[in-house]
């Protein structure tokens, strides 16, 4: 494996540590609200990119 890619390898212990830190920072009640916001942002991005693709296809 290439040495500069080793820090990108995330194992189960690193994921567990990240989850614990997120729980400590935001609390259990705030996380679903954050995930909803993230999901709606991703949905809006996909819709906008699809709309842009449709506009490009119509011009051709």
From TrEMBL:
InterPro entries: TatA/B/E (IPR003369), TatA/E (IPR006312)
A GO MF label: protein transmembrane transporter activity
Keywords from the named record: Cell membrane, Membrane, Protein transport, Translocation, Transmembrane, Transmembrane helix, Transport
GO BP annotations listed: protein transport by the Tat complex
Membrane-protein topology: Single-pass membrane protein
Top-rank lineage group of the source organism: Bacteria
Gene3D superfamilies (UniProt xref): 1.20.5.3310
Keyword Protein transport found: yes
Broad class of the protein's primary localization: membrane
Listed transmembrane segments: 6-26
GO cellular component terms, semicolon-separated: TAT protein transport complex
Compartments (UniProt record): Cell membrane
UniProt function note: Part of the twin-arginine translocation (Tat) system that transports large folded proteins containing a characteristic twin-arginine motif in their signal peptide across membranes. TatA could form the protein-conducting channel of the Tat system.
Description of how the protein assembles with itself and partners: Forms a complex with TatC.
Alphabetical list of HAMAP family matching this protein: TatA_E
PANTHER family listed in its UniProt record: SEC-INDEPENDENT PROTEIN TRANSLOCASE PROTEIN TATA
Family, similarity comment: Belongs to the TatA/E family.
Protein name (Swiss-Prot/TrEMBL): Sec-independent protein translocase protein TatA
